[in-house]
Design goal:
With 179 residues, the protein is of the alpha+beta class. The protein contains five helices and ten strands. It folds into two domains: 2-56, RRM (RNA recognition motif) domain (Alpha-Beta Plaits), CATH 3.30.70; 74-149, RRM (RNA recognition motif) domain (Alpha-Beta Plaits, 2-Layer Sandwich). The strands form four sheets. Strands 6-7-5-10 form a four-stranded antiparallel sheet, with helices on one face.
Length: 179
Amino acid sequence: FTAFGNILSCKVAQDENGGSKGYGFVHFETEEAANKSIEKVNGMLLNGKKVYVGRFIPRKEREKELGEKAKLFTNVYVKNFGEDFSDEMLKDMFEKYGRITSHKVMYKEDGSSRGFGFVAFEDPDAAERACMELNGKELVEGKPLYVGRAQKKAERQKELKRKFEQLKSERLTRYQGVN
């Protein structure tokens, strides 16, 4: 990117192991340099992959822009269906709600189900209906089926951290002045 102008900073996003997440940020000194890089590099093939280069949009703006769309989802996480559940059974259970683009039961090394999987729908309404109707339904003796929006790992970790902090502050408030 130095061919387009002076770079003030650049960063490649990394996962928890230090590997690249496949994207990064380049902060140019001038808007002209940034525009030139977008014009020349966006859509290029780099190591056999098409590259997207665009203006940085802060998270708050992206979320505001998405608005209601951010609440829509097509990927569903399913758990508590037991060890004998197959990909075909998962598909059969969910296809009545709408067109499925993919489905996957996660398996152990011995070939038995790990008791969870994912279903991706074409239409967000189908995913919503499946969650509403199947979540809490009993399949395996004593275990209610969990069917909900599939979350990205970072999103899930953020939510767990928020819940943990909330519980911690509730405990502190509850026991304040007990000694």
